[in-house]
């Protein structure tokens, strides 16, 4: 059934992720960031046996992931009781004997370890993983490899005793390698796509987390509070750190007992192309140590305070607008709780900013880029240069529109609840409804602008 054929429900469908889940993680992260920044004052006040320095290192950033994740996991298990949902594929009342699942588990472990070996080979082949910020991600994953290998054995043996169908994609991968039982190619592709997402984006998130954390915690915050641009930069940095920390937790915690498993990864090539164009090493926007939209030559995201520097009132207004847009962007990630991930279906999210538009992160991010870079306004005053900048930035926005459409196509095919959410949003959500009416108006006018030739 297509989206246009789904009856519009009377109410917006209930979200698979409760709002408090993300807020718990945000609260813990906020407290932790304050402690790291004011650590010198804490050491001095309480006479602690520690150096009076701000906690800005990569290990402090990694600890932030643990502190952010812990309350979200606790809320999910103790309050939302997500582990009891049928969508986990687990039946806690049906504990099989270990002897009944041991062969299944061994086959699954073979498939899982082979998958990890493929990811490791991809890291080894990708030169970009062994230089610059990515090197830290490789060090973390390398240190985690042996513990993950050892822990996977008791984890798989334990979980397979409760799974309704323990012969999942990892099992089919192992069955193909061992060659003793029939295996399903579709299950293997499903499994490999899911792990491709996790392998690619977990390394990316671990790469960016330390830098963003240091950029926020290390500076003297009081130096930012003297001007609108300074306040905006501090708050915008905070919003991006929130996005990075909670987003990283989402990629790491793809676990069935948390009902956070990847139920399916986007099967459409267009979806992967649209997404990968936005991330290194494929991205066209903002690679390390280069200005935003470097290929296009669009001004960086600091252009706004150069243009508006002589207009104090407008500078304050514009700073507030940019903080609001990044706030919405961070809120969109917080709303996911422990389920944030690109290119995947991990349940349906309908609350928070997703009650106003189906793609709040993409919309707010692109509006931020337009408002911060002001592509029409260039130092030379050239109209041609401004138009060229706007054209290239429009291409970037078009990529995100493409991403949104491919993601909708994936989710519409996966879940009846998403189809209901899609239909409800088209009829009731302020932003989605407005864009829908504009699109419908253009479609209505098209025949008038291009009439059929007379027969």
Structural account:
The protein has 455 residues and is mostly helical. The chain has one domain. Helices cover 63% and strands 1% of the residues. The protein has a two-stranded antiparallel ribbon. The C terminus is likely disordered.
What Rg is obtained from the alpha carbons, in whole angstroms?
24 Å
Helix content: 55-70%
The CA-CA distance between the termini, in Å, is 36 Å
Task: Kindly name the structural category.
Answer: mainly alpha
Reported for the largest beta sheet, the result is: 2 strands, antiparallel
Strands of the widest sheet, in order across it, are 1-2
Mean pLDDT: 91
Quantity of strands, as a count? 2
Instruction: State the order of secondary-structure elements, H for helix, E for strand.
Output: HHHHHHHHEHHHEHHHH
Shape: globular
Low-confidence stretches: 286-296, 449-455
Number of helices: 15
Strand content: under 5%
The total domain count is: 1
